[in-house]
Amino acid sequence: MTTMTLTHSAPSFTAPGPRRKALKSALKFGMAAAVFASIVAMSFLVLPRLEATGIWAYGIGFLIQATTSASIMVPVPGAAALTVMSQELNLFALAAVGAAGGAVGELVGYWLGTQGRGPLAKLGIYKELEAAMAKWGGTIVFIFAAVPLLPMDAAGIVAGATRLPLHRYLISMFLGKMLLLSLVFLAARQFSTAFSFVAEWMNVG
């Protein structure tokens, strides 16, 4: 007697083709670009003109800086918009609310660090980073927040991954950004005053 063996092949699932992946990536990039273009347009064209709204202008400054700081690895010139606003507002009060907004926005990087701790822990330098953040974490965050061009997003991610206490992170971030914004606003006001004096002296103002 001949026995027949029936074999059942498992259904195969094919990964999306390269064109589909490319399309999805292009759509994500396009959406991100549109969002950030809108932020830039609002920052330069709309929001700086609202300093005449009184105390609400400080809330606008908070939102501008929070949105700017939340944009991971993508430069959004929110500080430039606040600098324009500082010509009409109390510059130290604006620096304070801007620094608070910036600290809140930087929580995005901190949160990403907490979520990506597993992969980062596999890096050879993770133990050194963890030890450095445990000992000097507040100072490191302060320096990265206060000095322009330093990768604050990367510092936030490392702070989250190494479990730097959240209160230390926020306080250090606030103080660093407060210092930076105050100096920028002061410099801008001094430059504006000097330019007005020269223009008046030359009878072109």
Main sheet attributes: strand count, strand direction, barrel closure: none
Helix content: over 70%
User: Which geometry do the CA atoms define?
Assistant: flat
Along the chain, the helix and strand elements come as HHHHHHHHH
Low-confidence parts, pLDDT < 50 over ≥5 residues? Answer: 10-15, 201-205
Mean pLDDT over the residues: 76
Please state the structural category. Answer: mainly alpha
Rg (CA only):
25 Å
Number of alpha- plus pi-helical segments? 9
The share of residues in extended strands comes to: under 5%
State the separation between the terminal residues, measured CA to CA. Answer: 110 Å
Oligomer: single chain
Description:
- The N and C termini lie far apart (110 Å).
- This protein has 205 residues and is mostly helical.
- The chain contains 9 helices and no strands.
- The C terminus is likely disordered.
